Every structure is written in C-alpha cells, then in structure tokens.
From TrEMBL, chain A:
It comes from Flavobacterium hydrocarbonoxydans. InterPro entries: CO_DH_flav_C, CO_DH_flav_C_dom_sf, Diverse_Substr_Oxidored, FAD-bd_PCMH, FAD-bd_PCMH-like_sf, FAD-bd_PCMH_sub1, FAD-bd_PCMH_sub2, Mopterin_DH_FAD-bd. Residues 1-221 form the FAD-binding PCMH-type domain. Pfam families: CO_deh_flav_C, FAD_binding_5. This is Xanthine dehydrogenase family protein subunit M. PROSITE patterns: FAD_PCMH. GO terms for molecular function: FAD binding; oxidoreductase activity. Keywords: FAD, Flavoprotein.
From TrEMBL, chain B:
InterPro entries: Ald_Oxase/Xan_DH_a/b, Ald_Oxase/Xan_DH_a/b_sf, Ald_Oxase/xanthine_DH-like, AldOxase/xan_DH_MoCoBD1, AldOxase/xan_DH_MoCoBD2, AldOxase/xan_DH_Mopterin-bd_sf. Keywords: Molybdenum, Oxidoreductase. Gene3D superfamilies: Aldehyde oxidase/xanthine dehydrogenase, a/b hammerhead, Aldehyde oxidase/xanthine dehydrogenase, molybdopterin binding domain. The keyword Oxidoreductase applies. This is Molybdopterin-dependent oxidoreductase. Pfam families: Ald_Xan_dh_C, MoCoBD_1, MoCoBD_2. Residues 17-129 form the Aldehyde oxidase/xanthine dehydrogenase a/b hammerhead domain. GO terms for molecular function: iron ion binding; oxidoreductase activity. It comes from the Bacteria. It comes from Flavobacterium hydrocarbonoxydans.
Length: 326, 734
C-alpha cells in the first residue's frame, strides 16, 4: 500500500471542496470495501477524506417518505423499528448482506458505491476492463460462476454485489447528491449503470460528488414483501441470485408489485415488464410461474453461470410465493 | 481417567485473553519486517527483475533475489529426486515453477515501508507453457516408489461379480488456511539459527533448517509454543522460513515474515486435486466380492507428494479380491502437504460413496450392506484388530440421527417443502505411536513439571498431558505445568497422523509412573515408612501414604526438603511394544447427516449431524469433542464448499481469499452431536487410546453426498456439492 494522507471533513460542503483540490483523492466512510481495494492495490489514492464526522446519519420519517442519511450504518437501518415495520424489504436485504461486523461499519452510501467482487477485478496481474480499460475481460471464458446474465457486454460481465441496492431499486428510492455544482437528485434505478464499453464507470455519480441521503416513498408493500438470497453458504457470502419482491395484494388480486434481482447484472436488475404482467392478476401458482419465466427474457449465461438460467426463475417463483403467503 | 476426564483446556485462558504468544508475537529487539514478492506467471524464467525503486524506498534494508542471494551451503548438495524430490530452494535461480513462487524478499524497518517497497518490484518473464489442469494429463500419472500397486486375490476381481458398480469421483484442491498465518521471526546467534515459527514438529524443523544451512540440528533453536491451527501445513519447512533466515543473515538483524492470506493459498501446500476410479462387485445378496480403487493425484514438478488415498479400500471391508493403484502427476504448482484426514479423507469420499451406490443398486440399506461386509480382521496385514467398535458407532449414530425414518427410495421423505435425506460415511485412520521422551519433575513447591518438545497445534495436547500427569501422580491438575513446543526440551514427535496422545501421552504416563516410584522409594527410606512394605505405599495429592495405615504420611515437599533436593526428576523415552506389532490398530468413525434440500434453489440444509468414533479411551471429553466437532466441520467444508478454483489459462487460483474460498459458518449446521464409544484398546498403549484428529474428518464428505442422493436422487461425484449440481427446473404446474 502506498502512503496516503487522511483528513477529516465536517460537512458535505467541506468534503466536496477538499476533494476538489486533490488529484487522487477519495472519500472514505466505513471503508469496508475501499480498504480492501487499497490493500490489493486496485486503487491507490494519495488522499482520503474521512466523511464519517459529517452529520448524515439520521433516519427521518416524514409524511409519505423516509429519508436515510448516507452515513447511516447498514446495521442501524436494518434494525430500525420503523424501517422494519414500513420497509421490511429493505431491512431483510440489509440483514442478508455481509456479516454483522461489516454491517456495523458499512454505510448506506458506501454500500451503493461498493465495487464488484469479480476476482479478475481484484487481482492486479489479471486482465480486467473495469480496473484497466482495454486490458480485456478475464471472466469471459474464465471463472464466471458469480457473473451476470443480464445487461452485460463484451467488455464486462461483472455484477454489482449489493443486497441493499436491490431492495432500494424495487422500492423506487431517490438518491440525493451534492457536488461542486450544487445538489441534485438521481432516480435509484438510474444511479448504477450497465457496463457497455466503459465498465470502469460503475454509476452516474459525477466526479467530486458525494451522496448525502436516499429517500424512499411510502408504499403498500410492507405486508407482502420478501428478500430471497441464494448463496453458497448460509451467511457471509455474496448472492448468486437474489430477488426483492413487494406485493400489494387486495382481495387476492395483485394491485401493485415491485420486483428486482441481484447478482445478475452490473446494476440491481429491476423487472418492470414482469411487474406490468403481474399487475391486476389473481395470486396463483400459474401466474407466478409465468412471471418467473417472463423475467428471464433476454438472459444470457457464460459457462460457469449457466445454472443461473435455471436458478433465476426458480428464485423469482419462490420469492413471489413467500411474499404472497405472508 | 475419572477425575481428570473433563478438565478444562489448560491453555484456554491464555488463548482467549490474548496472553498466549504466537510465533510472530515474540518481542525481539531490533526486529525488521519482511515480505515475499511472488511471480505472476506459473512457469518460465525471470528475464529481468527491477528492484532499484524498492531498494531506494525509505527504510528498506535489503532486497534479496536470485541475483544477489548468498546461497545456503545446503543448496550445493547433489539433487536427488528418486524418492521425495527436493523442497523448492528459494532464490536458487531464475526458474519459475509455480504461480506466486517467491522471487524477492523485501526487508524494511517498518511493516508499512516494507509493504510499499514490495509494491515497487517489477519482473519480466520468459513464459513457458504451464500445466495445472489434472484432467488434461490424467494418463501421464506415474506410480511413486512408495505407493506400489496392491492386489489381493484376483486382480480387478470385481469385474466377475453378479452386480457391478464403476464410477469416477473427483475432489478439487483444498487449502489448510488456519486462522494464524504462516509466520516466522528468524535470527542468528553466530552460526546458530534461532527461529520462532509455525511448526508442527520442532525436531523436524531443526533438521530441515540445519540441512539447508549446514548446521547440526542440535544447533538450531526452534520455538513454536502456540499454534493458531495448522491442519498439516506445519508439517513442512517452507521456503518462506528459509528466506527469513537468509534475510536475517544478510542484514544481521532479526527478520519477521508473515505471509499474506493470499500466499496461504499458493505457497504452503494444500490437499491435492485427485481423480479416483472405483470398481465394486457384489453378489445379489450383498456380499462384496471385488473392490478396485485407483487414484491419480496432483504433485508439484519438484517433489513427489503422496498420501494414503487408496489404502482404506484394502482393509475396510471383508472382500476377497482387492486391487489398488495410486499415481501422481507433476503439475506446475507448489507441493501439496497432508491436510487433516489426508489421503483417507480423499479416499473415503470415493469408497464410501461407491459403497452407498452399490447398496442402492442392490436395493439394500447402506448400513445393512456394510454390516454384511464387516471385516472381522485386517485382511491387508492379515492381523487381528487391536479393538474395533465400528458396529457400536453405527448403532449409536442410527439412533441419534433417526435412521429408522430413512427410506431407501430417494426423494420419498418430505418435511413441508423440503426433501429429506439421510446419509452416512465411515472413516478410519491408523493409530500410530512414535518414540517420545518426557521429563517429569516434582518441584519443592508441590508442582509437577512435564517437558517435551512436542507441539500443540490446537487439539489440546497440553491438556491431555496435564490430565495423564495428574491422574498418575494424584496431584490436582492445577499443580501441573507443561513446557512444550520448543527445542532444548526432551524430544517429542512431530504432531501429525493423530499420534500425539499415543506417543507423548504414553511417555507422560511412563515418566510419571517412574517419578511416583522414585518418590515412594525415597519415602520408604524415611523413618515414617521404614517398617512399611514399599508395595503398600502410594502417592495421593502430593503426599505418600500407606494403604494400611492412613495416619502415616510424608508430603512430597518435605521429602524434597529433607533430602535437600530442589526437584525430583525422571527423564524417560517410551515407545511402542513388540506385542503391538501383532495387531492392526485403527480408529474408526462414522458420520451421519440429515439434510433438507430445496431442489428448486439447490439449497442444502444440514439439519442434523452426528459423528461417532471408536478412539479407545477418551482422555478428555471436552478437547476430544472439540476435535470431533472441528473435524466434522472440516469434512462439511470438503463436502459442500471448499475448492481452490484455478484459471488454467493463467495457471493461478482465482479465489485465493476468505471471501471467495468458502468454509462453513455456524448458520450452516443446525444441530451437531458427537459420540464416543470410549472403550479401552487393550493393545495400543498404556492408556488404551487410539487417534482422533484425522478420523474426525474422514467419511464426512461421502456422508453428505449420500444424504443428498437419498433426498434428491442426484448423485454428485465431484466435490464440492454446490447448488448448481443439484438444482432442477421447477416443474410447471400445467
């Protein structure tokens, strides 16, 4: 690891202005991913701006929405009583991620900004277009058991590793950011991006911008929602596939629905077409199976992850069934 | 072993409070920090290596490569490959034999400066075509000198049977990866090396280091008093240890070198990738008539590593015609090293899966099938068993797991949405005994000191020694002090092969008995006991008493004081008896599992795990149960998760970290039990113990595979059993 400076910012404004002066400066909060990346020499910032002193840790319930500060800890959100009651999908997704120790350190903003866990990205003597543009993709034709089945490109088949973000994509959250040009909002589903020819860019956050909060609108999914995570062991493993589902069921009819998958794409994979199909339908096994099959439209596998084409619809069916039966 | 059979782990407090000193934690004045830089190719030569930037970096004391190394004199010894080959001679020349092979040692005054300097080293290579994929060279296997083909009865006699099973089983490379990283502090006192290192055998480490540096083993000082696990990786003296000594010699200061976690996957051995072919034949009534077991296992290009993968098949069952063949293939990797349960764990996966498959083919309960082929004696050595309570293990396990709920037809038991499967696998391991010397001392403060250079990598060796010492001398366990894990003490064996209790425990037993006799002899010379026959004297709780007249007594403390002695000493070497050679001495274990499977998600839940073992006398319930739990969990990792994935295009592992290389977590095992038959072996050693550490793991992986088959009808023959191997498309309703 090369030497670096670390300074503490006390407001989002001072954080943004501090980073502005430095060539290779980065923000650090919980550090659960960034420190790994530095130890592995994947990133080597000259300067770190510690933003954990900024007052962005609050969870505020307002009429019709909740605002969660970007520096709220994953465990804090997961264990919040009102979040558990009104947004159980988010609490379930957060609890499914990482380990208790990591959840105590990791922040909401940091969770969104974590990098892919693709092995080729982490090993600096391997090809990876995300780490070194134009160096090639090691995962294509290599070890790709964890990799994407949706929205990948010839440049990159990595997936976004977050559980929390899958729930936030389903819940139609909005991301609030602050930068040198002021404040702006980004729709959660527009925050992360697909790799295309520029897989080195994970998201639409601009240079020197900082996430300040996310806002989730009120919903009617608190009764019938579920986060299903399929992984290689019962805890502390990234999702092979995960499914976030929220159902608004009235008189056995699906009035509204949200559906998103994790572990399948470079971003949380929102399934709007499948949602449209489900809306207005009666809850039934047949409906859920048809939805599960529809959700896989356009899926493509790369060898070691062929099983995801089978696991995907099975997981969606299972998640819909569990959510509906709650 | 009544009073002492449940004492607490004597080093437990030191370990959980952090006061136990592990090798890299010794306070050493003037210590420096080193790391190894690894090659980024799997085979070829170093074309050039640029160390200038690293040498000029702040705080750097030395950068050592093949270009500037002072080669130890041992490197000049003629190379022989006729038997084991030769450990990698670090920095000897420009050749690269495996990915991440050390190409440079960087030493600096602080840890951070060392790390930074190491990142500045750049090498260029002349690449050669590497070979890391065993499947591609399976026919290039050679039979090692010490693993000759074995035949009993008709060669490949299974082929003549009424019912035949032929299948192939594969296990991937698995890594030991104990929590404590491989580490060393190396220094020199004149020409004498002193090391604080992670070793399972102090005496072996002395010989290895002595050989490399041309020093007598007696002149090598080794400390390895606490180990944070090893699982076999501490059985070899690795190149990193030699590198630290080379570095220390060069700079004239102590060098501390701790491997990175990633290097634990590439530089300190592993359980080798192995392909096994089984051929089994039986009568329709379920009598085994033939068994052939073949294995091809990976080794490095420079050392012939072998293990007893096929041996279990020679004696486990009553079968007239048995053939085994074992081959190794040279691959461009580091040399493997025995990993807990070693070859037997690998072999049992094939044997115990195949037995289950054949029982299924015969439509017979797999335990009934095993009982019909129960070996009443060891047909390989043609000797009686010293003791064998395998049938008791079957019974105990069947009862605890609820075997009666099992149906032979796969997929026929359900609990709600879950498919239920029951499976079991048998394990065994030779119960060995090596010579060991123990010094036992009574001190005038009432303490019993037991000394032996043997290591305790975690099984509870010190606790076992304490229990035996306390039992024999009649002293409370709190009065026993153990000194172990360093050179200069009476010589103990390497800790491996489940032999420590049998070897060192026996030596403690014998030395303490001699010490008690010595104390009684002294007491008999006192006025108190002059008229008492010596046979009537006994030692209890630090006091010599007469069995007939308990009013008479002499304390050990007063005995020492009256004789003006600081201590009473016995040093004694113990070894196995001639009588024991007439018997075949094995431990046996049986693992039972109940799995719940969701075939749509491929999820396997271990609802209940029961491990039963016949290990002779149980010296300590707590540490033995701890070992059995740990071994079973290791077997669960082998069965369900562990696999070092190699990208053969680059000849390197891609999951060399704990996030991607999975071992089980608590949440994976819902209920776990351990059960010991606890019957004394009349032959093995004075205590009647047999080995435990290895057999605790052997047989678990096939138990899981058999249970998964019973639940789903899917037979997985390539470990680990990950969900992609059992997932099924969900059945469309209509």
């Amino acid at each position: 690891m090369k030497n670096f400076q670390i300074i503490k910012a006390l407001s989002s404004k001072s954080a943004v202005s501090s980073v502005g002066k430095e060539k290779d400066a980065m923000f650090i909060a919980g550090g659960t991913n960034l420190v790994d990346l530095m130890k592995k020499n994947v990133v080597a910032p000259d300067k770190l701006i510690d933003i954990t002193g900024i007052d962005l840790k609050q969870i505020e319930f307002l009429t019709g929405k909740v605002t969660i500060g970007a520096l709220a800890k994953n465990s804090q959100v997961a264990e919040d009583k009102i979040i558990k009651e009104n947004y159980p999908l988010l609490a379930l997704a957060l609890s499914a991620g990482a380990s208790q120790q990591i959840r105590h350190m990791a922040t909401v903003g940091g969770n969104m900004l974590q990098r892919t866990r693709c092995s080729y990205f982490y090993n600096t003597d391997m090809p990876c277009n995300k780490r070194v543009p134009k160096s090639g993709c090691g995962a294509i034709g290599g070890s790709n058991r964890m990799h994407a089945i949706f929205g990948a490109s010839d440049s990159c088949i990595a997936v976004h590793p977050s559980d929390m973000c899958v729930a936030l994509a389903a819940l139609e959250a909005t991301v609030f950011v602050e930068g040198p040009k002021g404040k702006r909002e980004i729709k959660f589903t527009d925050f992360h991006r697909l790799p295309g020819n520029t897989p080195e860019i994970d998201n639409t956050l601009q240079n020197k911008e900082i996430i300040t909060s996310i806002v989730i609108p009120e919903n009617n999914f608190s009764k019938n929602s579920h986060y299903l995570k399929v992984r290689d062991r019962s805890s502390y493993a990234f999702a092979l596939i995960s499914v976030a589902v929220g159902l608004d069921i009235q008189n056995n009819t699906i009035k509204d629905v949200r559906l998103a998958m994790g572990g399948v794409a470079h971003k949380p994979w929102r399934l709007t077409e499948t949602e449209e199909f489900l809306k207005g339908k009666t809850v039934s096994e047949t409906t859920f199976r048809q939805a599960a099959d529809l959700a896989m439209k356009g899926a493509r596998s790369y060898g070691e992850n062929d099983f995801k084409l089978t696991l995907g619809p099975n997981a969606i069916f299972e998640a819909l069934t569990i959510a509906a039966s709650k | 072993m009544s009073k002492t059979s449940n004492i607490n782990r004597v080093d437990g407090f030191a370990k959980v409070t952090g006061s136990a000193t592990y090798s890299a934690e010794y306070k050493t004045s003037g210590v420096t920090y080193a790391c190894l830089v690894g090659s980024t190719i799997a085979k070829g030569r170093i074309k050039s290596i640029d160390t200038k930037k690293a040498e000029w970096a702040p705080g750097v004391l030395a950068v050592i490569t093949h270009l500037n190394v002072d080669k130890p004199v041992g490197y000049e010894q003629p190379k022989s490959r006729n038997n084991f080959g030769q450990p990698l001679q670090i920095f000897k020349d420009d050749s690269i034999l495996y990915y991440d092979q050390p190409i440079a040692l960087v030493i600096a005054d602080t840890f951070e400066r060392m790390q930074y300097a190491a990142s500045l080293i750049k090498a260029e290579y002349l690449k050669e075509t590497h070979s890391t994929d065993v499947q591609k060279v399976i026919n290039k296997g050679k039979t090692p000198e010490r693993s000759k083909d074995y035949h009993r009865g008709v060669e490949d006699g299974y082929k003549n049977a009424e019912v035949i099973l032929e299948e192939e089983y594969t296990i991937p490379t698995e890594v030991h990866n104990p929590m404590e990283l491989a580490n060393i502090i190396a220094k020199w006192e004149g020409n004498k090396p002193i090391v604080y290192t992670k070793s399972q055998g102090v005496e072996g480490t002395r010989r290895s280091i002595g050989g490399v540096f041309g020093v007598q083993p007696e002149d090598v000082e080794v400390h390895s008093e606490y180990l944070g696990g090893a699982f076999g990786m501490g059985l070899h003296t690795w190149p990193y240890e030699i590198a630290a000594l080379i570095g220390s010699k060069k700079i004239g200061r102590p060098v501390k070198l701790v491997l990175h976690r990633e290097q634990m996957f590439t530089n300190v051995g592993f359980r080798p990738y192995t392909i096994q072919k089984m051929g089994l034949g039986a009568t329709k009534e379920g009598k085994l008539t033939g068994l052939t077991h073949e294995a091809v296992a990976l080794t490095s290009s420079y050392e012939d590593f072998t293990e007893a993968t096929v041996n279990m098949s020679r004696f486990m069952y009553d079968c007239a015609n048995v053939s085994t063949r074992y081959k190794i293939v040279e691959m461009d990797t580091c040399t493997p090293i025995w990993m807990r349960g070693p070859g037997e764990a690998t072999g049992s996966f094939a044997l115990e899966s195949a037995i289950d498959e054949l029982a299924h083919k015969l439509d017979m309960d797999p335990i009934e099938f095993r009982k019909r082929n129960h070996a009443e004696k060891d047909l390989e050595q043609n000797k009686p068993w010293s003791s064998k309570y395998l049938l008791e293990c079957y019974e105990g396990g069947m009862e605890r797991i609820g075997w009666k709920n099992r149906k032979n037809k796969p997929g026929s038991v359900r609990e709600g949405e879950w498919l239920v499967g029951y499976g079991m696998g048998t394990g065994t391991f030779g119960s060995y005994r090596s010579p060991a010397t123990v010094k036992a001392k009574f001190l005038s403060n009432g303490t019993l000191v037991l000394q032996c250079s043997v290591n305790d990598m975690g099984p509870g060796t010190a606790t076992m020694m304490t229990a035996i010492g306390a039992e024999i001398t009649g002293l409370p366990a709190e009065n026993v002090v153990i000194e172990m894990g360093r050179s200069g003490l009476p010589k103990g064996p390497t800790q491996g092969g489940s032999a420590t209790t049998s070897s060192v425990g026996s030596a403690v037993h014998d030395a303490c008995n001699l010490l008690v006799s010595k104390a009684i002899g002294l007491a008999h010379e006192t006025n108190v006991f002059k008229s008492t026959p010596i046979a009537n004297l006994t030692l209890s709780n630090g006091t010599v008493i007469s069995k007939d007249d308990t009013s008479k007594s002499v304390t050990l403390v007063s005995l020492l004081n009256d004789n003006k002695l600081d201590e009473l000493i016995v040093e004694n070497e113990s070894k196995g008896s001639e009588e024991a050679r007439k018997y075949s001495i094995y431990s046996f274990s049986v693992h039972f599992v109940k799995v719940l499977v969701n075939p749509n998600l491929g999820k396997i839940r271990l609802a209940h795990v029961v491990s039963c073992a016949d290990i002779g006398t149980v010296i300590n319930q707590k540490t033995s149960a701890g070992q059995m739990y740990g071994g079973a969990v290791g077997g669960i990792g082998m069965g369900l998760m562990e696999s070092l994935e190699i990208d053969h295009r680059f000849g390197r592992p891609i999951n060399n970290n704990f996030a991607d290389y999975h071992v089980p977590v608590n949440a994976d095992i819902e209920k776990q039990e351990v059960f010991f038959v606890n019957k004394k072996d009349p032959i093995s050693n004075p205590m009647g113990t047999k080995g435990l550490g290895e057999t605790a793991l052997v047989g678990m992986a096939p138990a899981i595979a058999n249970a998964v088959f019973n639940a789903t009808g899917k037979r997985v023959r390539d470990l680990p059993i990950t969900l992609d191997k059992i997932i099924e498309p969900s059945v469309a309703m209509t």
